[in-house]
Amino acid sequence: MKQILIALILLTTSAAAQTDQPCFIGQEAEELTLLLDQYQAYSRALQWDSLTMLMDTTELVGFKEIMVGALRQAGADADMSAFSMIFEDSLASIEEVEKIPPGVFFAKFMGFMTEYAPEFAEIMKSGSFSLVGCLRESETTGYAVIKVSMQYSGETIDAVDVIPLRKRADGRWFVGMKADFKQLASALVGGQ
Q1: How many CB atoms lie within 10 A of CB 137?
Q2: Per-residue pLDDT reduced to its tens digit, 66-120
Q3: Of 29, 50, 82, 144, which is most buried, counting CB atoms within 10 Å of its CB?
Q4: Distance CA 96, CA 142 (A)
Q5: Which residues are CB-neighbours of 32 under 8 A, at least 6 positions away?
Q6: pLDDT of 6 strictly over 50
Q7: Cβ neighbours for 168, distance < 8 A, ≥ 6 positions apart
Q8: Are 142 and 24 spatial neighbours (Cβ–Cβ below 8 Å)?
Q9: Nearest CA-CA partner of 31 in 116, 189, 144
């Protein structure tokens, strides 16, 4: 459980963008600073609906596809009760789960996780996040390198992590979803 909680924290947190060595300049740097500040604020406040508005839509679709894919693999044996609990609705079929918009799906999932694992919620609320630096891969892809400090079971846990950044065709930047978050989703639905 401790490893899952730590993975969830690292995967959903971001940093207040304060660094002497920005990887973006001018207005773009200001936009990314605001994006990362909002992302951190929403994460710490457990405001998952607001958080999804800052995330890349393609990434949210991919996350949902992992979860729904596991249901499809289970077929007639799929246990819809867990999804009914997550979405606070009587979901009787995979088709009903597929109709849920990706942002709503992610927000409800995260809300369920913070309710189901109060330790996760506490860590999210009390964590300390700082921007270490940035990398720019292309005109539409970048990465924020962050240092995360959190308390869990009386221990201070420090880690360095990377948050993907994606630029849409309209020129706005959004937060991407890390690959290991998708792997965690696969592990959760796979019963591992």
Answers
A1: 11
A2: 888 877 776 666 666 777 777 777 666 778 888 889 999 999 888 888 888 888 8
A3: 144
A4: 35
A5: 17, 24, 134, 142, 144, 165, 173
A6: no
A7: 56, 174
A8: yes
A9: 144
- Contact between 48 and 22 under an 8 Å Cβ cutoff? The reply is no
DSSP string computed for the chain:
-HHHHHHHHHHH---B---SS-SS-HHHHHHHHHHHHHHHHHHHTT-HHHHHTTB-HHHHHHHHHHHHHHHHHHGGG--THHHHHHHTS---SHHHHHTS-HHHHHHHHHHHHHHH-HHHHHHHHH-EEEEEEEEE-SSSEEEEEEEEEEEETTEEEEEEEEEEEEE-TTS-EEE---HHHHHHHHHHHTT-
Structure tokens at 102: 């990706």
Using CA atoms, how far apart are residues 169 and 46, in angstroms rounded to an integer? 29
What six digits make up the tokens of 167? 């630029």
Residues 36/185, Cβ–Cβ less than 8 Å? no
The token pair that represents 22 in the structure block: 């920005």
CA 57 to centroid of chain Cα atoms: 12
Q: Give the count of beta carbons closer than 10 Å to the beta carbon of residue 159.
A: 13
